[in-house]
């Protein structure tokens, strides 16, 4: 796919769209300005088969996380955990200028005090479940990714942002702290000192700075990062699905321990790819000078 791939119109022509909100009531904020639900899951077909999109769509709040949106997001991730046809997940926004601006503060003000920690805990569960998905997850960040929105992005494996995107854990401005994994995942991404600077000051940074400090893997000079996320996903699709999943396990688990134990994790993951049919197919395809056809077996 070309970097200048037209994206949305062509992609939607091959999408199989499914509303994951059947039977789930939404707040009036989610339905007053858009016929679409606040979040959609879409499975692509044909040459993009295996790519799944989660698309956020609350334009009136710049994708602020409402209770309805949060529940639909949690259900989508739980469903994908057991979806054998899913190979790569892209999380993106349908709202120009915003990835996700964190919790819906208007809704938060009406929430009883005892409900707030439950809501935050549910977001924390979402980011943990998102991070533990067995497939690669790509965040395409256009516009603002603030508070819980950045915490969702931090739970992804690969972050791609536009150069003018705005990112930050801004919770201390509201006299709270990041509560959905931000203090931990940001620290692992950029180091202790830089994480403290960004959290203590509630500073927002653009995509250029985010790439420089290692918060995102790539900052693109374009209006949208979505075509680049699809380009990345297509590169992943070409590779062995079992190998990709085990590589993710090796990196995630190994990075949380010392080198000696990390090497043991790698060895154990490598042992699991040896008996696969995909490995034999790769060797056969190499000898026959053709592209391999992987089946995840």
UniProtKB/TrEMBL annotation:
GO terms for biological process: fatty acid beta-oxidation. The keyword Lyase applies. GO terms for cellular component: mitochondrion. The keyword Lyase applies. It comes from the Eukaryota. InterPro entries: ClpP/crotonase-like_dom_sf (IPR029045), Enoyl-CoA_hyd/isom_CS (IPR018376), Enoyl-CoA_hydra/iso (IPR001753), Enoyl-CoA_hydra_C (IPR014748). Keywords: Lyase. One of its GO terms (molecular function) is enoyl-CoA hydratase activity. Belongs to the enoyl-CoA hydratase/isomerase family. PANTHER family: ENOYL-COA HYDRATASE-RELATED, SD19268P. This is Uncharacterized protein. It comes from Panagrolaimus davidi.
């Amino acid at each position: 796919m070309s970097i200048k791939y037209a994206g949305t119109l062509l992609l939607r022509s091959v999408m199989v769209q499914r509303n994951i909100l059947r039977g789930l009531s939404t707040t009036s904020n989610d339905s007053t300005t858009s016929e679409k639900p606040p979040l959609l899951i879409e499975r692509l077909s044909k040459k993009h088969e295996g790519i799944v999109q989660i698309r956020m769509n609350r334009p009136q709040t710049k994708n602020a996380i409402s209770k309805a949106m949060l529940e639909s997001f949690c259900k989508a991730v739980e469903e994908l955990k057991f979806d054998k046809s899913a190979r790569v997940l892209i999380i993106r926004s349908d709202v120009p200028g915003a990835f996700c601006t964190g919790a819906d503060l208007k809704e938060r003000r009406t929430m009883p005090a005892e409900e707030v920690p439950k809501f935050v805990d549910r977001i924390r569960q979402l980011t943990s479940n998102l991070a533990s998905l067995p497939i690669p997850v790509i965040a395409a960040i256009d516009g603002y990714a603030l508070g819980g929105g950045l915490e969702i992005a931090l739970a992804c494996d690969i972050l791609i942002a536009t150069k003018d995107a705005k990112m930050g854990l801004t919770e201390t401005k509201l006299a709270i702290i990041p509560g959905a994994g931000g203090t931990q995942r940001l620290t692992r991404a950029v180091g202790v000192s830089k994480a403290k600077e960004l959290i203590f000051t509630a500073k927002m940074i653009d995509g250029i700075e985010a790439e420089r400090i290692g918060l995102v893997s790539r900052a693109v000079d374009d209006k949208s990062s979505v075509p680049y996320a699809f380009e990345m996903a297509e590169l992943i699709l070409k590779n062995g699905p079992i190998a990709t999943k085990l590589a993710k396990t090796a990196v995630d688990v190994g990075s949380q321990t010392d080198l000696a134990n990390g090497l043991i994790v790698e060895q154990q993951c490598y042992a699991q790819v040896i008996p696969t049919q995909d490995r034999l197919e790769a060797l056969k395809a190499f000898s026959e000078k053709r592209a391999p056809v992987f089946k995840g077996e």
